[in-house]
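::Amino acid chain::
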Amino acid sequence: MPVEFTFLGTCAADFSPRLQGDCKDRFDFDARRASCALINGRYLLDCGPHCPDSFRIAGYDTKKVTDIIITHLHSDHFNPDNIAFIAKDHPVTLWVREDAVVPQIENVTVVKMTNYEKYDINEDFSVTGLPANHDEKVFPRHLLIEAGGKKIFYGMDGGWLLFRTYMQLWKAGLDLCVLDGTCGDYEGDYRMGEHNSIPMIRLMLPSLRTVGTIDDHTLVYISHLAPSLHKSHAETVQICKKDNINVAYDGLKLSL
């Protein structure tokens, strides 16, 4: 069964002012919106400040969203007003970590997820929350998703991988691996405890291959890029190409 995965936003929190100008009504490689993704038109991964615009520009219908799965509560990933906008005309289930405190939102049912426990949303879609190496105050976790027989790792906001999360991915044979790529192609950034740089990802991928997390068929992408820490999208694509790392961009659709 084909699975459609769409990057609706691929930026860290340093948004371009062009989003209020010439890119207000379109996607642009170098004016990224807040990181979020959509699977099969109905499962939304994160819902930050730009979600309604991203849906509009990509041509998706928010009324088809049945579930919103939150990685953590930083404002560029969790915007209650935009969740309310999506759920204004129909019921939506909001999936958060078990210790997260979220406001009550009309038409929204909150399900709190225990780390490492697999939740079957329906017969063709399940999600497991895996702790992330990020600001603990916002209840961070990565997402291991099984959809239509495909395995997806969505790892936004987190430097390296925590040990048990790494072990959970042992022999996963991922079809798609999306990693935090906040920092650019340089060494020495102080954010290494909670964000990846391209050199860090270069080190990670061979180990993930060794333990069977990824293999030759796995699509590897970086997302959550900070424009202030990267070169242009075109230059970043060339930098990553030799390591078989793909660079996500707003509006990119993958068929798995």
